[in-house]
Specification:
Length: about 425
């Protein structure tokens, strides 16, 4: 739909209400994202194990993750920009449908290239789910409550991914690895039905025509504040591959280790992240964001340095809880920054598409960095190199954001 009609989605007044009340449309989006990412989360403990049985090395494990991030990253800005013009429901439905199909075909893979191609296809679906859901949240966020609004969508993301590994580890221990992927398919098809039956046909679109994608990206490159936000998003997701894909490989050599334990470690991090999203979102709305950004980056870097030295389940859970704490500080801060930039300059979908492109680029780069570190220098180096990169790039990003802080304050009061 190319009409500028936005009847189901009235904009809130500029004065922020005293109590944050999520829009009913946002609630539906949150539920569908939770169900979809629950399906995605259940494969986290088993996909690396499946890949190693098919002959994957540390580098090809990284490529499997990088393939997903590559296709997702390339498409996200385009999807975001087009959704500002035409609406978002169709993209969300298509992404969920692709995720369901992926769950059905992964068990059919017979070699590592098959997994890489399937993950490329899955990345296409991913470009239509989380960025579009974040654009919904961005569009509906009242001024001054950006952190809380993005915190709510992040709760769905982390609860889904956090609960998923426990479920995946449980069913892989009982029914085997293929069953986990079929459960993923069922959950994603259920989310597809939820969206198609409950979301209005007219998705939220921008009141003013958004800039073209190329023009918007050129403007982002020229604006230091935007580049700092994107660099921070890139830096803080470099850890995804070592902390997710390498953990099952690290833990499988422990005496008595099970898939359920691996899932619980991963879940402890993401559930901690989910529980703290809303309070950290309120904190980001009320206080200076740059110190919070640096605090989160320091916490995550310290956790990464410690992980290779751990050889017990309880200590690993405690470390991943600390890692989740660091991420819980980071995500609402960066999400709030992205909402502000999208509202003021580029359009919500366009900004969220490029914001998630930076995330995909970070995961892709982190996959190659950690995979090469593992193959050439060992497991310890994979984590240490990633920690060093996160800390260095986050401080650089904070410098860029602070450079334009006076300009933002002037615009806010004008």
């Amino acid at each position: 739909m190319k009409s500028n009609q936005v009847l189901p989605f009235p904009r809130r007044s500029q004065a922020a209400p005293p109590v944050f009340m999520p829009n009913p449309i946002l609630i539906t989006v949150v539920l569908s994202v939770f169900i979809a990412l629950l399906g995605v989360g259940i494969v986290i403990p088993v996909l690396p194990v499946l890949a190693t049985t098919l002959g994957a090395t540390g580098f090809t494990l990284g490529l499997i993750t990088a393939a997903f991030s590559l296709s997702r990253g390339l498409l996200q800005p385009l999807v975001g920009n087009v959704s500002d013009r035409w609406g978002r429901k169709g993209f969300l439905m298509a992404g969920l449908l692709i995720y369901g199909i992926v769950g059905l075909v992964i068990p059919l893979a017979t070699n590592v290239p098959h997994l890489i191609y399937i993950r490329l296809f899955q990345g296409i679906g991913a470009a239509m789910i989380v960025p579009v859901a974040m654009a919904y949240a961005s569009f509906l966020a009242p001024p001054g409550q950006e952190g809380r609004s993005m915190g709510i969508i992040n709760i769905a993301i982390f609860c889904g991914i956090g609960c998923g590994p426990i479920v995946g580890g449980f069913f892989s221990d009982i029914w085997g690895i293929p069953s986990v992927f079929y459960i993923m398919a069922v959950l994603c098809f259920a989310a597809f039905l939820l969206v198609i039956t409950t979301l209005p046909s007219c998705s939220p679109i921008e009141r003013k025509p958004p800039l073209g994608l190329w023009v918007s990206m050129q403007a982002m490159i020229r604006r230091k504040r935007t580049m700092g936000i994107l660099l921070a998003r890139f830096a803080t997701v470099l850890m995804m591959v070592p902390t997710m894909a390498f953990l099952p490989v690290l833990m499988k050599d422990w005496p008595g280790s099970t898939g359920m334990q691996t899932g619980m470690v991963i879940a402890s991090r993401t559930l901690m992240n989910a529980v703290l999203q809303y309070p950290m979102g309120k904190l980001a709305d009320r206080h200076e964001k740059i110190p919070l950004l640096l605090l989160g980056a320091i916490c995550t870097s310290l956790a990464l340095v410690c992980i290779p030295f751990i050889h017990s389940f309880g200590t690993m859970v405690a470390t991943y809880l600390f890692l989740g704490l660091g991420e819980a500080v980071l995500w609402p801060v960066l999400g709030a920054y992205a909402v502000e930039e999208g509202r003021a300059h580029y359009g919500h979908g366009t900004m969220m598409g490029v914001f998630n492109l930076a995330m995909s680029a970070g995961v892709f780069t982190g996959a190659l960095l950690a995979g090469a570190g593992l193959d050439f220098f060992g497991m310890h180096a994979a984590f240490w190199l990633t920690a060093l990169a996160i800390a260095t790039l986050s401080f650089w990003a904070a410098t860029l954001i602070r450079t334009d802080s006076s300009e933002v304050k002037t615009n806010a009061t004008s």
